[in-house]
Amino acid sequence: MVEKVYVTYNQVHKLCQASADQILNEFKPNLMIAIGGGGYVPARILRSFLKRPSAPNIPIQAIGLSLYEQLPSSNPSNPVETPGTKVTRTQWLDFSSLEMANLVGKNILIVDEVDDTRTTLEYAVRELQKDVEEAAQKAGSNERTHFSIFVLHNKDKTKKGHLPQAMMDEGKYLAARTVTDVWICYPWEATDIDEHDTLAASQAQY
Fold this sequence. Notes:
Radius of gyration: 18 Å
Strand order of the largest sheet: 4-3-2-5-6-7
Order of helices and strands: EHEHEEEHEHEEH
Structural class: alpha/beta
Helix content: 25-40%
Shape: globular
Oligomer: single chain
Strand content: 25-35%
């Protein structure tokens, strides 16, 4: 049986706070793209720590990607999820309302909650790079767009997906915490937050 660990909002807040200076100093993001649904809350918390006096808030855009699928369980109140094999695009940047040319030449930080198999991150980086390159060609721009990644947790396991080697070589990937291959239960997934926090209090902090 897969071990479950419970993470609180307070822990998420502190993980974002602890990572903010490195992100600001090394990644220098102009824009965040949150992968839904797990990247929404970390991106919003992170924005508060990345805010600098007299500087505007860093905008947040959202994309939706689904890889996990729910499996039948003998206990309906405790469903089991497992990584799927195909990434499903449930929400993407709206090219009709968002000028893709505005992304060209920017430092874009992709935010998600967990790097499990890396399949979702690989898809997000590949597709966003392709879209921005097309926008650059249309705009006649030679400016380079820089992508970086922030996740709360990286699972220490063999990955099915792969990120660009240049991104890894340049240190454009940051995980606030590296953990073993456990099932991480985040607070925004909870239907009973008091029970969730009680379970989290009985475990080591993740």
